[in-house]
Design goal:
The radius of gyration is 31 Å and the shape is elongated. The N terminus is likely disordered. Among the domains are: 109 residues, Glutamyl-tRNA Synthetase, domain 3 (Alpha-Beta Complex), CATH 3.90.800; 102 residues, Ribosomal Protein L25, Chain P (Beta Barrel). Helix 3 crosses helix 12, helix 8 crosses helix 9 and helix 12 crosses helix 13. The protein has 15 helices and 29 strands. The protein has a 7-stranded mixed beta sheet with strand order 12-27-28-29-25-26-13. A 7-stranded mixed beta sheet has the order 23-20-21-22-14-17-24, with no helix packed on it. A hairpin with a 3-residue loop joins strand 27 and strand 28. The structure holds adenosine-5'-triphosphate and magnesium ion. The site of adenosine-5'-triphosphate has 15 residues, from helix 3 and strand 8. Its EC number is 6.1.1.18. It catalyses: tRNA(Gln) + L-glutamine + ATP = L-glutaminyl-tRNA(Gln) + AMP + diphosphate. Belongs to the class-I aminoacyl-tRNA synthetase family.
Length: 563
C-alpha cells in the first residue's frame, strides 16, 4: 500500500486520505458511488467510478454502489440494471449487496422527526413559487416563511399528515429551520421532504413523501459507514448542509464530503438531461449511440474497459474545472488497439480494377501478417485474382503531379502483392468509372522495382475474396468545443456526425467473425489497413452483411487539424 500511496501522492485526494490515516491508524476507507437511476452512465461517471472503487482497492477498504433513488418520477428499473452492468463491465466490484437510499427511508423519516422535535424543522405550506421568491438571491437575503414558527406539536402532526397522503403534491413540504439570511443559499431553510404521489421502483406505494438529495445523501453515507464521500464541485456549498444535518441529528458516524472537478470533454455533452434531449429528438439512435459518451455508446463504438480506465487515470483528479481534449480519450483506445488489433484489408468505397494480363481462373494465395510488429498474432490468407476492388479515393482520373496514388500511366503497389499500372478506364453512360484497366507486373511480388523508386502502396480486396460490409464513420456530434455551455446546444450539431459506407471486407475474416458474432463477451476489433480501427457492431450485423463502427482514426486527426 505504501508504495502506491506515495506514487499517487500528487492527487489531492490521496493527500487527504494519507493525512486521515496518520491521525487514525485503524481507519478503514469506505467510499461509495451514488448514481441516480434516471439515465445511463457516461464517461463523467466513469471518472467518479474509477476514483471511488480504486481508492477502496488501494487502501484495502470498501466501495458501496448506492442508487440515489429519491425521485421516483424520473427513475426506472431499466437504468438500475444498465448501471450495474456498466460498472461490472468497467471492471469494478461493489462491496456486498447493492444499496439504495430508499432502503434507509424509515430511518430518514425518524431523523426528520428528530429535527422537528428539536425545533430544527417545520412544515411549510408556501407554494413552490413562493418558496423560491422568499429564498432571496446572492445579492438579497431571504425572508422567513409565515409558517416557520409553528409549534413542534403542530409540525409533528402536519408531517404525519404529509406522510399519510392527506396533502396534495406541492401543498406542503418539510424544511430545515436554519437561516434565511445565510450567505449560502442552500442554508436558507432547505427543503428536506416533498410530497410525490408516484410508485417507487423499490418501495412501491409505501411512501408519498420523499427526502431531497441533500437530506438523504449525508444520512445514507452515515448509515452505511462511508468515511469519504466524494462528489463534484457544484456540491461545495451543499457541504455546509451535509455537515449541519449530521451534526443536528443523533447519528453516530460522521462521513466527510470532499469535492473534485467534473469531467468536461471537448465537443461533447455529458449532462444526462441534455443527452436525453438528443435521444428524444432522434438526433442520435438511443443511449448506446456511438456518438454520445455513455459507457454503452463508447462500448458500441469499440472502446474497451481498459482504455476508459486508462483515460480516467491520465486525466487525474483535481479541483480545477477544465475541458479535456478529445484527442486524449482517442489516444487511450488507439494506443491499446495499435498493440492488439489484427490488421486486415477493407474497401469502404469500392472501385473495380481489371488486370488484363492475368488469367480469369488465376487464384493465388498470399499469406499476410496479422500485425506488422507482433508475429505472435499470426497470419492470414488472402487471394489475388484478376478482378479486385480498391478504394475510390485511391484513383484519380485527372492528371495531378502531387497525387501519389493510382493514376493513368502510373504504377502503384497493391499491399502485400504486385505492382500494377493503370492504362485506361471504362465508364457507364452517366460518366461514372466502372472499371480501371491495369497491367500487372508479374515479377514484382516481394521485389523492389529495378532502377525505379518504390511506388506508393494501396489496400485492395480480390472480388472473389470479398464479403459485403457496412462501415459507420463517426465524427464529432457538435461543431463547437464546449456545447455543454450553450443553452441552445442543438444549434451547434455537426450534420456529418455519421457517414455510412457500403463496401467489402476480406471473406476469410468475415467467416471467422460470423462464427463468433453471437458471443456477447467477445470484442471483435480490427485495424482496416490505411483506414482506421473498427469494431463489429453486433446489434446491426447480419450473417449476410456485417456492420462495423469506426472506433478511432489511425492518427490523431484533431492535432493534425490544428496544425
Ligand atoms: P448528470 O449531470 O449527467 O445528470 P449527475 O451528477 O446528476 O450527472 P448522478 O447519477 O447523480 O449524475 O451521478 C453519480 C455520481 O457521478 C456523482 O457522484 C457525480 O458527482 C458523478 N458524476 C456525474 N457526472 C460527472 C462528471 N461529468 N464528472 C465527474 N463525475 C461525475
Ligand atoms: Mg444527480
Amino acid at each position: 500500500m505504501n508504495t502506491k500511496t506515495k506514487k499517487n501522492s500528487n492527487n489531492f485526494i490521496y493527500k487527504i486520505i494519507n493525512k486521515d490515516l496518520k491521525k487514525n491508524k485503524n481507519l478503514l476507507l469506505h467510499t461509495r458511488f451514488p448514481p441516480e437511476p434516471n439515465g445511463h452512465l457516461h464517461i463523467g461517471h466513469a471518472k467518479s467510478i474509477c476514483l471511488n472503487f480504486e481508492l477502496a482497492n488501494l487502501y484495502h477498504g470498501y466501495c458501496n454502489l448506492r442508487f440515489d433513488d429519491t425521485n421516483p418520477i424520473k427513475e426506472n428499473i431499466k437504468y438500475i440494471n444498465s448501471i450495474q452492468n456498466d460498472i461490472k463491465w468497467l471492471g469494478y466490484k461493489w462491496h456486498k449487496k447493492i444499496r439504495y437510499s430508499s432502503e434507509h427511508f424509515s430511518k430518514l423519516y425518524e431523523y426528520a422527526k428528530e429535527l422537528i422535535q428539536k425545533g430544527l424543522a417545520y412544515v411549510d405550506e408556501l407554494t413552490k413559487q413562493e418558496i423560491r421568491e422568499y429564498r432571496g438571491t446572492l445579492k438579497t437575503i431571504g425572508k422567513n416563511s409565515p409558517y416557520r414558527d409553528r409549534s413542534i406539536t403542530e409540525n409533528l402532526k402536519l408531517f404525519e399528515k404529509m406522510r399519510q397522503g392527506k396533502f396534495n403534491e406541492g401543498e406542503a413540504c418539510l424544511r430545515a429551520k436554519i437561516n434565511m439570511s445565510s450567505s449560502f443559499i442552500v442554508m436558507r431553510d432547505p427543503v428536506l421532504y416533498r410530497i410525490i404521489f408516484s410508485t417507487h421502483h423499490q418501495t412501491e406505494n409505501k411512501w408519498c413523501i420523499y427526502p431531497t438529495y441533500d437530506f438523504a445523501h449525508c444520512l445514507s453515507d452515515s448509515i452505511e459507514g462511508i468515511t469519504h464521500s466524494f462528489c463534484t464541485l457544484e456540491f461545495q456549498d451543499n457541504k455546509n448542509l451535509y455537515n449541519w444535518i449530521l451534526k443536528k441529528t443523533s447519528v453516530t458516524h460522521y462521513s466527510k464530503q470532499y469535492e473534485f472537478s467534473r469531467l468536461n470533454l471537448e465537443y461533447s455533452i455529458l449532462s444526462k438531461r441534455k443527452i436525453a434531449v438528443l435521444i428524444e429528438k432522434k438526433i442520435v439512435n438511443g443511449w448506446d449511440d456511438p456518438r454520445i459518451l455513455t459507457i454503452s455508446g463508447l462500448r458500441r463504438k469499440g472502446y474497451t474497459a481498459s482504455s476508459i480506465r486508462e483515460f480516467c487515470h491520465r486525466i487525474g483528479v483535481t479541483k480545477q474545472n477544465n475541458l479535456v481534449e478529445f484527442s486524449m480519450l482517442e489516444y487511450c483506445i488507439r494506443n491499446e488497439l495499435n498493440q492488439k488489433a489484427v490488421r486486415t484489408m477493407a474497401v469502404l468505397e469500392p472501385i473495380k480494377i481489371f488486370l488484363y494480363n492475368i488469367d480469369d481462373n488465376h487464384e493465388e494465395k498470399l499469406i499476410v501478417p496479422n500485425h506488422p510488429n507482433n508475429p505472435s498474432l499470426g497470419t492470414h490468407e488472402i487471394i489475388f485474382t484478376n478482378t479486385i476492388y480498391i478504394e475510390r479515393e485511391d484513383f484519380k482520373e485527372e492528371y495531378d503531379k502531387k497525387y501519389k496514388r493510382l493514376k493513368i500511366g502510373e504504377e502503384i503497389r497493391l499491399r502485400y502483392s504486385y505492382i500494377i499500372k493503370a492504362e485506361k478506364i471504362e465508364k457507364d453512360k452517366n460518366g461514372n468509372i466502372i472499371n480501371i484497366i491495369c497491367f500487372c507486373d508479374v515479377n514484382s511480388l516481394g521485389k523492389k522495382p529495378v532502377n525505379k523508386k518504390n511506388p506508393a502502396v494501396i489496400h485492395w480486396i480480390s472480388i472473389k475474396n470479398s464479403f459485403p460490409a457496412q462501415f459507420k464513420l463517426y465524427n464529432q456530434l457538435f461543431k463547437i468545443k464546449n456545447p455543454e455551455q450553450e443553452e441552445n446546444f442543438l444549434s451547434f450539431l455537426n450534420s456529418n456526425s455519421l457517414i455510412v459506407k457500403n463496401g467489402f471486407i476480406e471473406k476469410k475474416i468475415a467467416q471467422k467473425i460470423i462464427k463468433k458474432m453471437n458471443d456477447n463477451f467477445i470484442h471483435l476489433f480490427f485495424q482496416f489497413e490505411r483506414i482506421g480501427y473498427f469494431c463489429l457492431d453486433k446489434l446491426d450485423s447480419k450473417e449476410n452483411k456485417l456492420v462495423f463502427n469506426r472506433t478511432v482514426n489511425l492518427r490523431d486527426s484533431w492535432n493534425l487539424k490544428k496544425k
